[in-house]
Amino acid sequence: MTIQTRLIEYQHGETLLEGFLAWNDALEGPLPGVVVAHAWGGRNPFEEDKAVKLAELGYVGFALDMYGKGVRGSGPDENTVLMTPFMQDRQLLQGRMDLAVAILREQPEVDAPRVAAMGFCFGGLCVLDLARSGSDVLGVASFHGLFAPPGNTVGTPITAKVLCLHGYDDPMAQPQSMLDLASELSAAGADWQVHAYGNTVHSFTNPAADDKAAGTAYDANADRRSWASLVDFLEEVLA
Fold it and tell me: What is the C-alpha separation between 141 and 110, in angstroms, rounded?
């Protein structure tokens, strides 16, 4: 197995973006592709590592960029400043997600019809919005994502299969929001699953998360279980 990586520059409006691609060049292609949407701090080694892990599973992983080449937040205040414009303009968010999918599909290593998306925290909301907007990706998986509906997709059928992997005690998306999301997905005709992990809060997949006052903490069991669920989900939707 030889995992290869490269950086890909692409443009959305006036914004230059840079994504990270990973694939196994020992496998005959083209291969199914998976977009990886980052948390509120911007694309960083955490998402790049997930792209590599996807490559090890036989997919092409693409850690996208929502904010701009080299744009990263250094902490909660900067991260909030970066994320807020997208929370206020979900059409902008959806357009940037659509573009990332299109860029992945253009890569010669990728079997363009067989594409899915996954995301963490803010990225979880991004992939849910991708599905909500009627994208033809085959599936989306949200890890400890945000569930607030965008307001501009009511009545749009969801054709992508949806998997939400969530801490039941996440203060940023409380149990009622899971029920609301379930009702929203059902109304849109989606094939959906929500896996809730007890005694688990936000950012449970990130070993660096350790701010119990803010409701963020790593949980090894939930991390392991959620990744196993993702592997099963991808095998189903990208077969």
Answer: 19
User: How far from chain centre, in Å, is Cα 239?
Assistant: 20
* Average pLDDT value for residue range 20-41: 96
Interval 111-130 mean pLDDT? 98
Range of the domain at 196: 3-237
* CB neighbours of residue 8 within 10 Å: 17
Would you call 143 exposed, middle or buried from its count of C-beta atoms within 10 A (0-12, 13-18, 19+)? buried
Owner of token pair 């189903």: 236
Q: Helices 76-88 and 122-132 meet at what angle, rounded to 10?
A: 10
**CATH number of the domain where residue 226 is located:** 3.40.50.1820
Q: Supply the pTM of this predicted model.
A: 0.96
Asked if 194 and 181 touch (Cβ cutoff 8 Å), the reply is: yes
Query: How are strands ordered across the β-sheet holding 15-24?
Result: 3-12, 15-24, 60-63, 31-37, 110-120, 139-143, 161-167, 192-197
Bridge partners for 115 per DSSP = 33
* Distances from the Cα of 149 to the Cα of 17, 77, 120, 181, angstroms: 25, 23, 17, 8
pLDDT digits (tens, 9 = 90+) for 77-111: 999 999 999 999 999 999 999 999 999 999 999 99
How many structural domains compose the chain? 1
Task: Write down the pLDDT at residue 1.
Answer: 66
pLDDT at 162: 98
- Kindly report each contact of residues 45-48 with a partner whose C-beta sits within 8 Å and lies 24 or more positions away, as own/partner: 46/120, 46/206, 46/208, 47/20, 47/120, 47/123, 48/5, 48/20, 48/22
